[in-house]
Amino acid sequence: DMPTPIKYFNPEIREAYRMFDTGNLNVDAILNAKISLALEREIPCHYKATIPKQLSVSDIDLCVILGNLIDNAVEACRDVEPKSQFLRLYIAPMKQQFYISVSNATNELVRKLDEDYISRKRGDHGHGLKRIDVMVEKYGGYINRKNEPGVFVTEIMLPL
Fold it and tell me: Do 107 and 82 contact (CB within 8 A), yes or no?
């Protein structure tokens, strides 16, 4: 009488927990967890992350920013037909700045991305956007959101 096999996630997902190895343990933890979640939902993900040793932004704040960005991206993909879903994440030092870019599929065409829009919009999503703005502002950084047909992009520059 055979023992019941242990049921793992599909093996690709088990691999996924070790996708990020930037040298920053907290950032690796949040990126691995969030991107694994996206992959479990079968959202195609493309990502590259290089975290400099010295950052002006605290690990906790950086994790809040990244967590909210990826949550929003995954959320937006849910409303898009599977074959059009995607999530792209790029994090690297660039020209004395720390650059973060997240792009995702969306079926929403947002005309206005002002505070008014953000606070009136869907509950949680709105809070997530707001939380990101507060963090970026705290460090004197810069945030740019772009909405093109089918694609939503958030770019963040933080001082190094």
Answer: no
